[in-house]
Design goal:
Layout: E1 2-8, H1 16-27, E2 34-36, H2 50-56, H3 64-76, E3 79-88, E4 91-100, E5 103-109, H4 117-120, E6 130-133, E7 136-140, H5 149-157, E8 162-166, H6 173-185, E9 188-192, E10 197-200, E11 203-206, E12 212-214, E13 220-223, E14 230-236, E15 245-247, E16 250-251
Helix pairs in contact: 1-3, 5-6
Length: 264
Amino acid sequence: MLRVGYFQFRPVFGAVEKNRATVLAALARARADLIVLPELPFTGYAFKNRLELSELAEDPRRSPTLNALTELCRARSLYVATGFAERHGKRLYNSAFLVGPRGVVQHYRKLHLFFREKLYFDEGNLPLGVSSVRGAKVGLMVCFDYMFPEVARRLALLGADLLAHPSNLVTHYGQGVMATRALENGVFAITANRIGEDRRPGGKVRFTGMSQIVDPRGELIAKAAGGKPALTIVRIEPTVARDKYFTPMNHLLHDRRPAFYQSR
């Protein structure tokens, strides 16, 4: 059995140290194997321009945030999947990291940028991958990646038992679509969304909350409210995700017909 969960909260835009302290305090006594945080939980989301993002983003090679999460994971024997505003030279990525007691385990850069993200983030350029967390295979995806079924399918083909999905969802579609992604790939999925809103020069962005954990049949195991902070931890059996038979005669991966999926 694996103890997994999400932490849903309201980051304060631009207050990296304050948001980091909020996360560390919330998880200080958490008894879990894996906890998923939202997308961009330390910086906030609605940047006015690329310069502002650059000033708030961190280089993961010398990041106070990733160092603090590593210390937390070491102290709590925990893994954390988190969104992260990444600065790499002159490039800026909407990234996610899987952090454990020994540091960064997996690094992913969001492939599918949503709306105004295209004005200040660079497109992700790292391959999708999975990493082991106490015997379970975990794959990272970020928010709007949910609209592209190829992401979840690729992670399933790589052996993912669980999709860790840091998000800043602004519609109510994402939660339902992630239940479908779990069902069609026979995997668990944890969507950690944020709450509240960012009021910025470019306008107001409101987030829907309703973080959730879904099982390989697309059924809800846990779901948070739309507007309240929540730290939720449940027990799952990750090996359930390795049975890909939808019926005794239908296998979700083996029954695929890739030769007919090619563009013409």
